[in-house]
Design a protein that fits this description.
- The structure is a single chain.
- The chain starts with 8 loop residues before the first strand and ends in a 7-residue tail after the last helix.
- The relative contact order is 0.15.
- It has 263 residues and is α/β, with parallel strands linked by helices.
- Helix 1 links the parallel strand 1 and strand 2.
- Strands 1, 2, 3, 4, 5, 6, 7, 8 and 9 form a nine-stranded mixed beta sheet that branches.
- The chain has a single domain, classed as Spore Coat Polysaccharide Biosynthesis Protein SpsA, Chain A (Alpha-Beta Complex).
Length: 263
């Protein structure tokens, strides 16, 4: 019997003026040991040398473009519109994958055809790539997502293209919470699964990252999803929003602290 071919994985990197980190992101994709990766970079018209970095690797890319767009959400939608993979993911231009991440994700999805999306653990890293903390990943589902138990590091998620075709594209009105919105839509249709103990990616924290610059906007957008889907003011996600406004500055300080023995 002829073996069933491995599914193609389409990975999108949206980028804009991240030349400082972009090559590390590109290499983390290209050095994966999974053989069927379609890698697409959608640059928003960078002027900082990013295009020169992309051109160094263009022969290893499915395609790339550098042109003015409407931001990260638009760039991801543009990339997936031209993607041909059965499994989809995106990795931002300041984050990186760890070795074997793609292959481990695909293996799980092949072995568990009922699962729509899989994700794993993620480190926080600083500008120089040092590990400074760990993302609070945990199993969640549609009900818990709606209550604010998110616990999904976007950098680690891989999901089936069939759900993008059914539920996509990303809502262009979201600047920050477009991934949360997509997760709730996917989780409303099929199980999503967390694989504990597998560290698939690194989430870079730096002074210009969206997590630092737009944290408040992100929570406002998540609340918009909550209320849009019938959520109440008297809910956990609303309580978490107000609690985070109090403890948020402390959290940012904590993840910037070097891990003992890793300074």
């Amino acid at each position: 019997m002829k073996p069933i071919p491995l599914p193609r994985v389409s990975i999108i990197t949206p980028s804009f003026n991240q030349a400082k980190f972009l090559e590390q992101t590109i290499l983390s994709v290209l050095e994966q040991d999974y053989p069927r990766i379609e890698y697409i970079i959608v640059d928003g018209g960078s002027t900082d040398g990013s295009v020169d970095v992309i051109k160094e690797y263009e022969d290893k890319l499915a395609w790339w473009v550098s042109e003015q767009d409407k931001g990260q959400t638009d760039a991801i939608n543009k990339g997936f519109a031209g993607a041909k993979g059965e499994i989809l993911a995106w990795i931002n231009s300041d984050d990186t994958y760890n070795p074997h991440a793609v292959g481990q994700a695909v293996k799980y999805l092949i072995e568990n055809p009922e699962v729509a999306m899989v994700y794993a653990d993620c480190n926080f890293i600083n500008e120089t790539g040092d590990v400074i903390g760990k993302f609070n990943s945990a199993q969640t589902d549609y009900r818990r997502l709606r209550e604010g138990y998110i616990h999904i590091p976007q950098q680690t998620m891989f999901f089936r293209a069939k759900y993008w075709k059914e539920l996509g594209p990303l809502d262009p009105s979201f600047y920050f919470a477009m991934d949360y919105d997509l997760w709730t839509r996917i989780a409303s249709k099929a199980p999503i699964k967390y694989l504990a103990g597998q560290i698939w990616s690194n989430f870079r924290i730096h002074t210009t990252s969206k997590t630092n610059v737009s944290d408040e906007r992100g929570w406002q957008e998540m609340l918009r999803v909550h209320y849009r889907d019938g959520g109440s003011f008297f809910s956990i996600i609303v309580a978490k929003y107000y609690l985070r406004k109090i403890i948020g500055p402390l959290w940012k300080w904590r993840i910037r602290k070097p891990v003992i023995g890793n300074s």
